[in-house]
Amino acid sequence: MEEQELSQIQANVRLAVDQLGPLSEVDFGLNRESVKWVEGFIERQRSQPDFDLERIGGLVGVLGSFLGACIVAATGGRWHRSDDDGWGVLLPDGSTAFPFAKVHKQFRDGVEEGESIAGFYRIAVDYLATGRIREARGDDAEGADR
After folding, report:
1. What is the CATH number of the domain that holds 82?
2. Cα–Cα distance between 104 and 64 in angstroms, integer?
3. Which domain of life is it from (predicted)?
């Protein structure tokens, strides 16, 4: 089952790159610039008059897969499935980032309410994966934004 789910995540990543890359005006791929563009894409979708949070499950799956793959590419982390929290990215410092949850939160609440996938990416890549956040806080944070 896990291999099948990982295959679906990879298919979602390819779909995101193939479909969103041509729409963007950036060097679209598994990088910070593309995450920032996808954040704007989510905000543009939220502003559509026919936007319905109840009908975006597939889009959350595709964009969450893409966000997670970007974090994996930047950190050397890996996809990990927990029984309690589902799929996340296990980071080199041992913490886990949950990109599907973050994408859903941005769709639900938006950047204006502090739900930014670009900020999530930055924290996961620049602080959690490197251990810098633990050094700064002096604790053992387990997970990143559920």
Report:
1. 1.20.120
2. 8
3. Bacteria
